[in-house]
Amino acid sequence: MTTMANRLSGRIKDANKQRVLDEATRQRRARKALESLESDNFHDDPHADLVMNKKAPKFQETLDAKSGSRKKKSKSAEYYKLKFRKSLAQMIEEDKALNSQGSAYENAEAKPSKFPNRHFCAVCGFPSNYTCVPCGARYCCVRCLGTHQDTRCLKWTA
């Protein structure tokens, strides 16, 4: 009998020690994680206000100067995209103002899928077949399970 107890895997022994979350707690944790991701999802480009050093050589101008004529620089479409960039909220508000029925974005609907939900690994993003017993997160292999247990599983609770 003692040899059978010694042959149990370490994962099964550890699972008995860990607490298991109920479905409501798992949903609440997933919602809080999504809210935190959404809150820091959109940021302006930190490099948008960088100005090139005036001492840096301007290679295009030196080539034009050698040919004898200077061309006026035309602004590319990329310049206008960056200058007049709008956020998603601004585009939705603009769409609401143009359409009397409301925004097409808000009225868009799709039929439910005929296929079952696909599950992806919480660590690497590959398709996953396994679920963490304590927290319900998905993982695809032993390596991702180790990473999940070391860094994610029940570590960051709100």
Report on the structure:
The chain has 158 residues and is mostly helical. It has a domain of 40 residues. The protein has a two-stranded antiparallel ribbon with strand order 1-2. A hairpin with a 6-residue loop joins strand 1 and strand 2. The two termini are 43 Å apart.
Structural descriptors:
zinc ion binding, zinc, Zinc finger HIT domain-containing protein 1, zinc-finger, mainly alpha, two-stranded antiparallel sheet, 158 residues
Kindly report how far apart the N and C termini lie.
43 Å
Order of SSEs: HHHHHHHEEH
Structural class: mainly alpha
CA-based gyration radius: 27 Å
The percent range for helix content is: 40-55%
Beta-strand percentage range: under 5%
Shape: extended
Largest sheet: 2 strands, antiparallel
Average pLDDT reading: 75
**Widest β-sheet, arrangement of strands:** 1-2
- Low-confidence runs of at least 5 consecutive residues: none
Number of strands: 2
Number of helices: 8
Summarize the model shown.
The protein is mainly alpha-helical and 158 residues long. It has helices spanning 2-6, 10-17, 23-39, 59-67, 77-83, 88-98, 104-107, 142-151; strands at 130-131, 138-139.
List the helices and strands and how they pair.
Blueprint: H1 2-6, H2 10-17, H3 23-39, H4 59-67, H5 77-83, H6 88-98, H7 104-107, E1 130-131, E2 138-139, H8 142-151
